Sequence to fold (436 residues):
Amino acid sequence: MLKNNSTILFLLFIIYSSSAQNEGVAPAAGSPLTYYQHIKAILDIHCVVCHRAGQSAPFPLSSYEDVEKRAHFIQMAVESRYMPPWHADPTFRTFHNENRLSDAEIQLITKWIAGGAKKGKPAKKTNPETSGQMTPYTEPDLRLTMQKPFEIPGDNSEQFRIFVIPTNTAEVLYVRGIGFHPGNLRQAHHARLMIDTTNLLRPDDGAVAGDPKTVFTEQEIKMSEEFWHGWVPGNFPIQYPEGFGKQLPKNADIILNMHYSPTPKPESDQSSISLYLCREKPRRFVKTFALGEQWITNQPFVIPENSEIKFYMRSPMLPADLSLATVMPHMHLLGKSFKAYAITPKGDLIPLIHIPVWDFKWQMIYQFENLLKLPKGSVIYAEAVFDNTAANGLNPNFPPKTVTYGWGTKDEMMNLIFEYLDYEEGDDALNLFERN
Ligand code: HEC
Fold:
């Protein structure tokens, strides 16, 4: 028994060390690059999370055949760094959920294609269906679904909608994990979940976000949580370690802000949310704060037609030590770049995030590598550039029109959203997202 085990371990060791040697390292001169020996491992890690059945990318990249027939397309996507989608500048700050190819990996893919995209032989039997997948999640404790399916019109319009999902809970829930499950992966562009405890927004279910006739806009309802969870293609459910959690007030409504991509034919969606509950009241709470347009120092937040303009934001002084878990900048189609940093009372600069080329499509939540301490008295600064000229290919107005604040896609926003905890000694060595 013991002997068998050690033989298996030894074999695993050989397989592991041969694949480890392949990582980003050029092969010996003369030996051809092959899919199985050099390329598959890279794609499994960096691409297959999205490019596989049941995920949102338009085609799978989990088998040789999938990859070979799109070789040149793939080369263009990786050389331009269009794929994998990652927009944060790694020289400013790196993140836990960073997904970038190294220069060596890009070269290897390019050389493999130039050499005829050879197949080679699999090292061992592999199942293309399971490659790149993670250990499955356990069943959630609670699943909440949109009250009714939403019919997405087939008129090639962007759809930006509000849905109200009542929780109907009699007690406060402590939530250790949250997942968002689009009902229509092709059309789901991104989703933002918020919490409303007034229950006044229920008539807005299915309404156009930003519509002046919604209760949300008319009564200027303030959410109890402006950002509870977010989803873009490729995101997995988050699960905090035991003892950590988010609070869901009793009888709260989850407000789902959903963006659908344009489609030429009618489609339908009924997305759902899965919740994993804490076994007992968590000792530490993951909370949110959002810096919105009111913190802009060069008011008013008006983006004149045919102009490029930079807005500066300055937060109030932080009232206590905080541990940041994630950061998420948010702008719409005129966004061009975004940078945020903090200055401590001692005058130290803490880089938070820099997105040199904003991409509306990828509203990502950036997870810090470990919890990041911002000392009491720090001030957060952000600067965002908006391009409201005709040269901006995504400009929703042609010719350009003056744009100001609003929830609609044709309006603009400048938000900087953080998930954080009250600081505790030792947080700098703690990672809330080990699982991803
Ligand atoms: C986070 C999810 C995600 C990851 C990771 C990802 N892709 Fe994609 N990919 C997409 C989505 C969604 C699309 C379709 C929308 C688009 O083109 O932006 C796409 C489109 C593409 C396209 C078509 C581009 C075009 O011009 O239409 C190629 C080629 C591609 N991906 C290759 C890759 C490769 C190679 C990797 C890994 C090195 C990768 N992708 C990683 C989600 C992902």
Notes: The helical segments are 2-22, 35-46, 64-68, 71-79, 103-114, 215-218. The chain is about 15% helix and 30% strand. Residues 43, 46-47, 49-51, 56-58, 70, 73-74, 77-78, 83-85, 99, 101, 233-234, 361 surround heme C (CB under 6 Å). The chain has three domains: 2-114, 137-284, 286-436.
